[in-house]
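Give me structure tokens for this 52-residue protein.
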Amino acid sequence: MHATPTFGTLAFAVIVLRRLVRAMPAEVEEAARGDGCGLPGALWRIVLPGPG
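Here you go.
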């Protein structure tokens, strides 16, 4: 049996990720991009793992 995400699950994930991205200081993302990460790399390596 496959557990398919429902609209509510996707909406919750978007809200959580949006809050994580907004909580990250802009300087951290700028530093990642200065080190050679593009936008996808900065999101994957810096923003998604979160602070800590």
